[in-house]
Specification:
Blueprint (H helix, E strand, L loop, with lengths): L20 H5 L2 H4 L7 H28 L5 H37 L4 H31 L4 H40 L8
């Protein structure tokens, strides 16, 4: 049986050691002062920061509702557009990465191809979690006119789905950054130009 603890998104604690050669050369602590942090690398980090921020907002929002700090109608009005934004942007971001960026990066540095394959598999796991997240969110929103018990059950189901998605996303974003940002720092934005 194969040990997948270094590649499975739900099990791993970071990228496998053989894929960390560039992040060891360019540790996170040095990224902000590197000459190549502008452009694509900066954009990438901003997008990921936005996903982390909206994920945290959704987590806090459902907690506020569950703990009575927001009414059902106020929560629904606040929640639906943020969830749609989060899910839609994540899906679009992953599609662009899978179709364009990951192949270009893997071509630029063949030693990282396995890492991009791992990230691509992550996207499939995250996509399944996005589906579950949307399903539990829609169920929860439908219950907002029903009994409190039904609402609480649905809110708990959504909170669990959201927690799982946000945890997977956090691991994935960190690992993706550890693969991509050092590559861009090493080669500059030219890493995305056709070779």
């Amino acid at each position: 049986m194969t040990d997948r603890s270094d590649t499975d998104l739900k099990l791993r604690a970071g990228l496998p050691d053989d894929l960390r050669f560039l992040v060891e050369k360019y540790p996170r602590s040095d990224w902000s002062v590197h000459d190549n942090i502008g452009g694509m690398a900066g954009f990438w980090l901003q997008r990921h920061g936005m996903f982390r921020e909206v994920g945290a907002m959704l987590t806090t929002g459902i907690a506020d509702y569950r703990e009575g700090r927001k009414s059902a109608s106020d929560f629904a009005q606040w929640f639906a557009p943020r969830l749609n934004f989060f899910l839609g942007n994540l899906d679009g971001h992953h599609n662009v990465e899978d179709q364009h960026y990951f192949p270009a990066f893997a071509k630029a540095e063949a030693r990282l191809k396995r890492g991009f394959d791992i990230l691509d598999r992550d996207h499939h796991q995250i996509h399944e979690a996005l589906g579950l997240n949307a399903e539990t969110a829609n169920f929860f929103l439908r219950t907002l006119r029903e009994s409190e018990d039904r609402q609480r059950f649905a809110a708990d189901a959504y909170a669990d789905a959201n927690q799982s998605l946000v945890a997977m996303l956090a691991r994935h974003l960190d690992d993706e950054e550890d693969l991509i940002i050092p590559l861009i720092l090493d080669r500059g934005d030219a890493v995305l130009e056709p070779h």
